[in-house]
Design brief:
Length: about 375
């Protein structure tokens, strides 16, 4: 039986995000596993028929394109991956559309890049699009736009994309469908004492360490990104479940409370929506190293970052870009939006606020980063 907390969290779910991993969709010969797609589509359609609003985040475009291009192995270069994704994405969405149509449901394709989510305006536009599609009873199928993404703007993994989508759509649950049946205390393939964690109340350093299981060669994510996804949505009050797609009827069982996979309870310490966007949707374009006094003022007293506390500036960023804040030991402890471009900040670092205008010839703000645009990451 479920714990009381788990029972209450899974009661009256109306909207959920389901992320399907690339490995579960790929056959050993790198073709799409159409039998698995049919299986999962059938499960999703049944949940939709029960009145649930469902958003799918599906990997598999690159895997689907490998055979289409006549390749015999997974490409390693970005251009080759982009080519495989461009060919494979149409094949993947066609398979979904054809199979969902047999169940009487319509789908829509949405491709996103990091820039779509880093821009607050585009983030909100994507949110509005999702709301309209759900209102029409359509099942949105989302993937990263691998065919145009490059290393600098790649979201990194669809686990993290699914977490952002769940937050954006204000979902009540995130289900991560994988080829493994949950989080273990140690990799069971290497350690016979590794045991499945049925429920995780808080994502501690020990939990994150246990998640260091590498992924497959068709996907770029592993257990670590799944745990980070669970942590991300948990900070917005959304529980997450990691399940194996090879388990029979696993989606309905997970929702009904069967102890399948690993269930992550939401965090007791919630982030405001804007702070969550700052922490998880933005990719830093540079870093600012601060002195001990500035770090303590930010972390302990909730203060802004002043130029006097800056000791080193790196990267290529402009006004309003996201940057990583690093302590004297070069460890990230916060992220924020810079009030100055990198060249400007280098000129005023270590100086008092009253000196900014004389050093630059103008002054935008007193603060290098205002506390309202800062979020702690440790």
């Amino acid at each position: 039986m479920m714990t009381d907390v788990r029972t209450s969290l899974l009661t009256n779910i109306k909207r959920l995000v389901i992320k399907i991993g690339s490995y579960i969709l790929a056959s050993p010969d790198h073709t799409l596993n159409t039998e698995m797609i049919r299986n999962l589509v059938g499960q999703v359609a049944a949940l939709k028929d029960d009145g649930l609003e469902i958003i799918l985040v599906s990997s598999g475009a690159i895997a689907a394109g490998i055979r289409q291009l006549g390749l015999d192995s997974v490409p390693t270069s970005i251009p080759m991956k982009q080519a495989a994704a461009a060919v494979g994405q149409s094949h993947l969405i066609w398979e979904y559309e054809r199979t969902f149509k047999e169940t009487g449901h319509r789908v829509a394709q949405i491709l996103l890049t990091h820039e779509d989510l880093a821009s607050r305006r585009r983030f909100l536009n994507a949110k509005n699009t999702l709301e309209e599609l759900l209102a029409f009873g359509v099942i949105p199928i989302i993937n990263e736009n691998d065919s145009v993404s490059v290393e600098e703007i790649k979201l990194g993994d669809n686990d993290l994309l699914s977490a952002t989508v769940a937050t954006m759509a204000q979902a009540q649950l995130l289900i991560l469908v994988s080829d493994v049946d949950g989080l273990y205390t140690a990799d069971p393939r290497k350690n016979e004492h590794g045991r499945l964690l049925s429920e995780v109340e808080a994502i501690t350093a020990e939990i994150e360490q246990a998640a260091g299981i590498s992924g497959s060669d068709v996907g770029i994510g592993g257990m670590a990104t799944k745990v980070q996804a669970a942590k991300s949505v948990g900070l917005m009050g959304i529980p997450a479940i990691i399940v194996s797609g090879r388990e029979p009827d696993v989606l309905r069982r997970a929702l009904s409370g069967d102890r399948v996979g690993t269930f992550f309870l939401p965090s007791k310490d919630r982030l405001a929506a804007r702070k969550h966007w700052l922490r998880y949707s933005l990719k830093p374009k540079g870093s600012i190293t601060v002195d001990e006094g500035a770090m303590q003022a930010i972390t302990k007293k909730g203060r802004s970052l002043l130029p006097s506390g800056v000791v080193k500036v790196e990267g290529r960023f402009e006004y309003g870009d996201a940057v990583s804040l690093r302590d004297p030991n070069d460890q990230e402890f916060a992220r924020g939006l810079s009030n100055y471009a990198v060249a400007e900040l280098k000129k005023i670092q270590g100086h008092h606020t009253k000196e900014i205008e004389s050093l630059l010839g103008y002054k935008h703000y007193d603060e290098a980063i205002h506390r309202d645009n800062l979020v702690l990451t440790y």
